[in-house]
Amino acid sequence: MSASFQGFGDGKEPGALRTIGEVVAALGIKAHVLRYWEDQFPQLKPLTRAGGRRYYRAEDIELLVEIDRLLHREGYTIRGARQAMKGWRPGMGQVAVEPREQAHEPQESAVSAPVRLESEEPEDQIVEALKILRSHLEAIRDRLGGALAQA
């Protein structure tokens, strides 16, 4: 597993199947986002049982951690992350990302990571940038909510 993920701490074996609720709680990613990523990343195929219940294996969780890193910390778009993840297999560790070019102005925070827009159309770029911004804001909201709940 990735060094950035510390585990579930629920007493289960590290290789145990996890429900979507357990994964959501451990990774801080919304359930609807996980389901969306299943559509966007062909490698992500959790087991589904009767009634559509999802069960995530350790390799699925490792993949989710890597997708989250690319999208929320490295600033990749879905398309860019999907391209970066081509050929990725469990146990490979992190996908090597392109080194960031030095900006003329210093970044104000870790959230203002570079955005890789794949489209040439201005409208598509705006929509893509807004999706990334929304994702960053949701991640910040979730982290703040978690911090407030612990306080």
From TrEMBL:
Q: Which Pfam families does the UniProt entry name for this protein? A: MerR_1
Keywords in UniProt for this one? DNA-binding
Q: Where is the HTH merR-type domain?
A: 19-87
Q: Is Repeat set as a keyword in this record?
A: no
SMART domains recorded for this chain? HTH_MERR
Instruction: Map out region (Disordered) in residue numbers.
Output: 99-120
Q: What CDD domains has UniProt attached to this entry?
A: HTH_MlrA-like_sg2
Q: What is this protein called?
A: MerR family transcriptional regulator
Identify the taxonomic lineage of the organism of origin.
Answer: Bacteria, Pseudomonadati, Pseudomonadota, Alphaproteobacteria, Sphingomonadales
